[in-house]
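ok so I'm stuck.
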Amino acid sequence: MFWGYDIFLPVVWLLLAAGIILLIDLFSDEPDKVQMPLFFTAIGGALLSFVSLNPYWNAPPVQPHFNAVQVDQFSAYLMAAILVGTAISMFASLSYVRRIGVSLADFLITLLLAASGMLLLTVSNDLIMLFLSIELLSFSVYVLTGLNSRSSRSAEGAMKYFIMGGLATGFMVMGMGAIYAVTGEVGLREIGRRLFALFAQPDGSEIMAVLGMGAVLISFAFKVGAVPFHSWVPDAYEGAPTTVTGFMAVAVKAAAFGALIRLAIVAFPDNAGVQGFTGDFGWASWALWALSAMSMVLGNWFAISQRNVKRMLAYSSIAHSGYLLMGIASAGASTEAYAAILFYLLAYTLMTSGAFAMLVYASSGGKDIESVDDLRGLAWKKPAVGIGMAIFMFSLAGIPLTGGFMGKYFLFSQAIDAGGRFMWLAILGICTSIVGSFYYLRVVAVTYFREPDDRPIHGRDDWGIKFALSLTVLGTVYLGISPTWAYNAAREGVAQLQQSAVVVVEAPRKAPPALVEKP
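replied:
not stuck anymore, here's the structure
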């Protein structure tokens, strides 16, 4: 089908939906009457993209021509998480974007373009595709951050995000250039083999390789908001529309960590393990250790003092990046450790998307929830909403019977099993997680034990956000009660990626029909 290019269908459906929305909006004389067609076109594109992942769950990895991308169970798992986060953001934004004066068509088109870049990033198998995918998602997210033209904070957050993102891009280009100069390759698997041979018989050029690997690692630290490359996170999260903040917090993180894991397993080998491919950054494990420790400590520390809910969740996101970096730093060749990271990304997608959707639900008129005190007495106004908010906060804090608890359990147990300095990193993660429970439980306390005000709840009659909240609440609880299926799917995907670092099945190529000369 399409000579092997059918593996691009998940992205094609999103881009096709974006194009249709653009045409509908362009030729519509009454924008208010086409809101629902626009919305269902976007949801339909996301659903078709999700369905098109089905052939790759139980199939060998496939690469089309030029090996620029590789679709496998690993990327399918991440793409599913990204599409879930995208759909939740769409449902939560159905009436919200109109309330803040943003065109629904502009929002949906940009959201679909950002999601397309994220899907491409999870399957990128060479440096060129990696760079192009990151830039597609980055520029789309910059636009989404500054989409609310009525808010000066939105413009400020978008500008800071853009400037810091440009700096990260500079590091990435410099690192990729150094790696290409040393290896002469752009394909990740070929780069991995050249680097392994280079470090096995060093000739001095390995210093350039180390600098290149370090620069690429710094660029990804910017993307995931790890300390000390986190300065853009609080302002961008606070300034962006609330549903955009939820999308940034989960989808960008899932895509960036997916690409980072692929680099670790395929392109940046250590000097031990199966044919040199251990899934370890080798020398960089110390750098990852430091990034993880600083992110967990400072992220939780600054979150405690925040009264603004979005800034609190922004610093919380930094801390969660620290937990995930701990998993990468301690993984080595462990399939289970990388599976724990993928499981945590799925759980984080559900609980964080739900938390931001809850803020949209509880907003009043055109005013967003800003302070924690704006949530006072919410549980008494709407008991179901109070229970949902408590579930999300419990999950983020890592309390049992939630997906967040199981995710942290998998991550911390794998780091402890790694032993040495990683065991101390896990202990630090457990301690900071306990400290971080304070600001999550403070939100629950305000919603239950403070007198309610007379502000109306805007989302009371919004079916889209109700659906998003129902999906995220059920998913968060289900992952906490029955995590086995998601963890096993993640483990199978990682195991396949580790095997494909050595052997890859080429995509079938159908020859074009032969030309027959007329007599």
